[in-house]
């Protein structure tokens, strides 16, 4: 069984190829790239597929592009993930579950599937930082959405006269800044951590399941890291997509 997964976010289109559910290769395209050239070239290299699964938080136009280029290269079923009220042991708190970002839903499915019986604080650190809490039984208690680290800094730069956006490689320093660049970068890190740590404090004994492009730089800074209660899982959304697609296929077979 060969499955190609796509996770279309606000800045990148990530892909992961699985054989019998095991990841064998992965990569990404930036949203600034010409997908009309890049996707056909890529799809010509992946070989025969049994299923293509898609998580989409980007535009409908992007979704149509993926579908167009996939179906132009081979005949294969498409599964487009949509959040469901109850799935794989997770029950959402949203009255309208389809309004929940599908990437958040998939991350919760994968987090709930981990062997740990703890309350889960599921954190995705990308363009936005999302925090969702699952109780031990998989009930979604709710969540938060705030700007991501880079977005915080870019917002300051675009809405002030003299503050510039400068990317920093000093990703583990929370000290008081002694120059403007450090003040901004350390402040963005501190704000992100304050949210995560507050949620953890309000749910004693919880485990943080962390993912997203900026997750790695926050991992060791989270308050319960030294207690062994932080797990960084870079493919969390893709793992959730695998769970959702498997449930979908079983439903079709039944």
Automatic annotation (TrEMBL):
The gene is coaX. ATP binds at residues 7-14, 127. One of its GO terms (cellular component) is cytoplasm. Its EC number is 2.7.1.33. PANTHER family: TYPE III PANTOTHENATE KINASE. Keywords: ATP-binding, Coenzyme A biosynthesis, Cytoplasm, Kinase, Metal-binding, Nucleotide-binding, Potassium, Transferase. GO terms for biological process: coenzyme A biosynthetic process. K(+) binds at residue 124. Substrate binds at residues 94, 101-104, 180. Homodimer. HAMAP family: Pantothen_kinase_3. A monovalent cation. Ammonium or potassium. This is Type III pantothenate kinase. One of its GO terms (molecular function) is ATP binding. Pfam families: Pan_kinase. The active site is at 103 (proton acceptor). Its main location: cytoplasm. It is an enzyme of class 2 (transferase). It catalyses: (R)-pantothenate + ATP = (R)-4'-phosphopantothenate + ADP + H(+). Belongs to the type III pantothenate kinase family. It is found in: Cytoplasm. Transmembrane segments: none annotated. Pathway: Cofactor biosynthesis; coenzyme A biosynthesis; CoA from (R)-pantothenate: step 1/5. Catalyzes the phosphorylation of pantothenate (Pan), the first step in CoA biosynthesis. Its cofactor is NH4(+); K(+).
């Amino acid at each position: 069984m060969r499955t190609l997964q796509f996770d279309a976010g606000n800045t990148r289109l990530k892909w992961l190829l699985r054989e019998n559910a095991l990841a064998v290769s992965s990569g990404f395209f930036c949203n600034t790239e010409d997908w009309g050239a890049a996707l056909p070239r890529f799809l010509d290299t992946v070989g025969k597929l049994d299923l293509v699964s898609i998580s989409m938080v980007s535009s409908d136009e992007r979704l149509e592009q993926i579908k167009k280029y996939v179906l132009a290269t081979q005949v294969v079923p498409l599964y487009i993930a949509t959040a469901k009220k109850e799935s794989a042991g997770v029950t959402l708190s949203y009255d309208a579950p389809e309004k929940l970002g599908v990437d958040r839903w998939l991350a919760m499915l994968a987090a709930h599937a981990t062997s740990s019986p703890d309350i889960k604080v599921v954190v995705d650190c990308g363009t936005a930082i999302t925090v969702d809490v699952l109780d031990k039984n998989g009930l979604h208690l709710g969540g938060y959405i705030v700007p991501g680290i880079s977005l915080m800094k870019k917002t300051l730069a675009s809405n002030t006269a003299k503050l510039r956006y400068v990317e920093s490689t000093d990703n583990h320093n929370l000290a008081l800044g002694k120059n403007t660049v450090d003040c901004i970068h350390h402040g963005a890190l501190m704000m992100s951590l304050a949210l995560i740590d507050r949620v953890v404090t309000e749910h004693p004994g919880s485990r943080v399941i962390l993912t997203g492009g900026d997750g790695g730089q926050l991992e060791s800074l989270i308050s319960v890291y030294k207690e062994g209660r932080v797990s960084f899982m870079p493919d969390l959304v893709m793992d959730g997509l695998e769970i959702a697609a498997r449930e979908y296929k079983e439903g079709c077979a039944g």
